[in-house]
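U., I forgot to send this yesterday:
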Amino acid sequence: MSRQQREALDQMMRNGPLDIAGDPAEQRAVFERMLTARPLADDVTATPGVLGGVPVLTIEAGGASTETVLLWFHGGWYAMGSPRTSAGLSSEVARRTGARVVSVDYRLAPEHPYPAALQDARSAYQALLDGGTDPRSVVFVGESAGGGLAAATLAGLHADGLPQPACAVLFSPWTDLTLRGASMTSKAGIDPSFAPEKVRVRAADYLGAAGAAADPSVSPLFADLTGLPPLLIQAGSHEILLDDSTRLAARAAAADVAVTLDVTPGVPHLFQSFSAMLDEGDAALSRVAAFLHAHVGSPVSRAAGLQG
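Result:
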């Protein structure tokens, strides 16, 4: 692995224009420009649709060759981002797995605080099932806030006795909106992208008037994780959300969940998005593909169930 690659990525992120605590409308535009500056590969298709009343973007790379559906939840601290901003990463996972991505364009805070995103995630999954998709062919994938959203949705499904997907992949999930993880301070000096005081602004936006930071449906770190499907949790050691991943993995293991915690040293938040320039990112996505190959069952239908 290349020290030069890691240093170049670190500098690029430190010098980036994004201010996650800034005006949401302005920073959404910055976030969009940053993450969509490079066009998608020629063999990637991105088709808008609606799933359970929620806008989605269906992404395929080279044509889906398996029955697997990756129900994808983008990052952006619940206040920014979209299926398009995560399409670079999601299309790369699609390419490596032959799966089809259905990326959920859940509502954003502060205009739509908790529980809007959670409701949208649940509605999209329920619509997949109602449309005939076998849950054994579905994988939840979430990045950052989307990783926390995926975990919270899984915990809610179990509590309500609904079928779980085959497995879930969580990239640096934001699982504790109380911001009490030790890495919030211990990693603040080496995280090139984020600072705790800025994250606190976005947490307050997501909570709004109805949410409580320690509520398990807000912070799945505190949820009953019993009955969750196999989890792959990936994080970098240079991020303030590191403890959100390590503590979630420990609690899942204590609840008898088959969990793989995969921490890559010396890399920042969502380093997998830079697999084209970072060897560690490429290697991490290869481990994601191997995990999915090991855990996705034999589906009976590949109907997407897209509906109004």
